[in-house]
Specification:
Elements: H1 5-22, E1 60-66, E2 73-76, E3 79-87, E4 104-113, E5 116-120, E6 126-131
Antiparallel strand pairs: 1-4, 2-3, 3-6, 4-5, 5-6
Length: about 140
C-alpha cells in the first residue's frame, strides 16, 4: 500500500495531537494534570477497610491506615508490607488532609505490581510499600 507524503503527515499530526490531549500527569504544574481522581474517604466508626485478600493490580481499594505507631507497616492482600519511599507530587485523592493527631487515615491502597503497593489519601504524598521480610514488631 502506497501512502502519499501529505497523507502521512496529516495522519501523524492527528495521532500526535490525540496522544497529547489524552496524556495524564501527576504534576500539578503540568498542563495535562487533571487533579485528584479518587473521591475523598472518611473513617467510618466501627468498620476497618483493608482491601481484598487477593487484590488486582492497578485497582485502588478503600484502605484505612493505623497511624498510632507511625506509618511503617501495613497488612494488605494477605501479607505484610513495609514503607519503602514517600513520593511527593500530584495528589490522587480529592478532599482535605486528615486533622493532626488522627490515629486512622482513610485512603486507597493500590497494588502497582507484585512487589509494590501505593497508599494515597487526601492531602498526603503517595506512600510506597514493598513486601516485608518479617512481621512487624509490636508497638511500644
Amino acid at each position: 500500500m502506497k501512502v502519499s507524503r501529505g497523507s502521512a503527515v496529516l495522519l501523524l499530526s492527528a495521532v500526535l495531537s490525540l496522544a497529547g490531549c489524552s496524556a495524564s500527569s501527576g504534576d500539578p504544574d503540568d498542563e495535562a494534570y487533571s487533579g485528584p481522581t479518587l473521591p475523598a474517604r472518611t473513617v467510618v466508626k466501627g468498620t476497618w477497610r483493608e482491601g481484598p485478600a487477593k487484590p488486582e493490580e492497578q485497582t485502588p481499594y478503600p484502605y484505612d491506615i493505623n497511624t498510632h505507631c507511625g506509618i511503617k507497616w501495613v497488612h494488605f492482600g494477605g501479607r505484610w508490607w513495609v514503607l519503602d519511599i514517600v513520593l511527593p507530587g500530584g495528589e490522587r485523592v480529592q478532599g482535605e488532609p486528615p486533622p493532626p493527631g488522627t490515629e486512622r487515615v482513610a485512603g486507597y491502597m493500590t497494588l502497582i505490581g507484585p512487589d509494590t503497593a501505593d497508599f494515597d489519601a487526601a492531602g498526603m504524598p503517595t506512600l510506597q510499600f514493598v513486601p516485608a521480610d518479617e512481621e512487624p514488631p509490636g508497638c511500644a
